[in-house]
Amino acid sequence: MAKKNDIVVEIKDIFGKLTIEDLQIKGKAVFIRADFNVPLDDNLVITDDRRIRSSLPTINYAIDEGAKVILASHLGRPKGKIDPKYSLAPVAKRLQRLLNKEVMFAPDCIGSQVENMVAKMKEGDVLLLENLRFHPEEEKNEEGFSRSLSKLADFFVNDAFGAAHRAHASTAGITKFIPSAAGFLLKSVIEYLKGVVDNPVRPFVAILGGAKVSGKIGVLENLANKVDKVIVGGGMAYTFIKAMGYEIGDSLVEPDMLDLAKKIMEKLRNNNVKFYLPVDSVIGQSLESSSDTKIVTNQEIPKGWKAFDIGPASVKLFNEALQDAKTIIWNGPMGVFEVDAYSRGTYAIANSVGDAYAMTIVGGGDTDYAIHRAGVSDSISFISTGGGASLQLLEGKDLPGISALTDKKA
Ligand code: AMP
């Protein structure tokens, strides 16, 4: 079967910011902000290390170039306090295995002890700092804390796409003090997401899902004059269906979004964008596994029942709409895919996107998870795990972690 990768899409250098390759890092200390915010089980074992793996190209490059590599990240939400549950120690161990070399681990991310450790580093050494968010100043983007971080290194490299929509000390504040560049991961996500949205091969289709319209409204508004088709599934679809005047039983609805939903549909119509909503649903009275499920058309959702997934006719309809797509962006599940009885719609769309002869970009944690569980991740052109950051980019907004980097011409 033809793979989407057979389609050659030219990704232009739209970045305009310094990248790690522009820096002379040999013998220099380089502070790399990575996104090592990995899931851990109760025994603090990493259950999915993809975020660590996705920063390896930047880390390996820095090692090979002979830099002193200082790595920093947040993990979870320790709320500005030291909490062993959120220590990056398990990440140090996993990194050591992935890099096949020693990874030193610092007990903090600033201070004289860490500075001493850095002073002893040799070219190619790797040091991971403890969780940045053990300090409340990190999320407050506090200047003194940013300065303390910057004191550790000659250069700053941001490779944490998942945190790029936050103006924190380690993503934005530090850039005031040392030359700052993007890592390979950060650069490639931006080039894919921004490049494809600004310059898509058409037809360009956006598939949006997830719980609420309010979470995706900015994306819909921004994409309304860029895409050829919009497919909406998941809980958010029912606000649109209700706005069209249908009864939707007790399905999820955002009453304060009904007017906006109408306006968006009008805007899409005026822009000649084809808009697809589910035509049938898998419904239940609750999410309990013992609870009955039925498949009904959306005209026939009874009171007391909730639509938890798109139905088979909707899958067919959406597949038809995807047939000629050359570019597909997908963000948000088609139903409550965490529950088996309501997961088929999401997995069916995952398979269709996987099979499509198109450039395919998947963003958001849930969608990324569904793609992996459906086993089609290898046939997706680009998967971005940074949910908030990718949504913000799709909304057409700048990301503080990227705007703060040093401009190329400078
Ligand atoms: P979001 O974070 O907005 O992308 O929403 C993701 C969540 O939406 C997932 O946890 C899904 O379980 C949930 N979801 C998807 N479809 C529905 C639905 N029809 N009703 C209620 N929740 C839904």
Describe the structure.
The protein is of the alpha/beta class and 410 residues long. It has two domains: 20-182, Rossmann fold (3-Layer(aba) Sandwich); 190-394, Rossmann fold (3-Layer(aba) Sandwich). The protein contains 15 helices and 15 strands. The strands form three sheets. The chain has a six-stranded parallel sheet. It has a six-stranded parallel sheet with strand order 9-8-7-13-14-15, with helices on both faces. A three-stranded antiparallel sheet has the order 11-10-12. The chain is elongated, with a radius of gyration of 23 Å. The site of adenosine monophosphate has 16 residues, from strand 12.
**CATH class category name of the largest domain:** Alpha Beta
**CATH architecture descriptor name of the largest domain:** 3-Layer(aba) Sandwich
How many β-strands, per DSSP?
A: 15
- Number of domains in the coordinates? 2
> Looking at CATH, which topology of the largest domain would you report?
Rossmann fold
Question: How many helices in DSSP terms?
Answer: 15
Q: Which class do the helix and strand fractions yield? A: alpha/beta
The poorly predicted ranges are 1-12
Strand count, sense and barrel status of the largest sheet are: 6 strands, parallel
Helix content: 25-40%
Element-level helix/strand string: EHHEHEHEHHEEHEHEHHEEEEHEHEHEHH
Give the ligands present: adenosine monophosphate
By CATH's scheme, which homologous superfamily of the largest domain applies?
Phosphoglycerate kinase, N-terminal domain
CA-atom Rg in angstroms: 23 Å
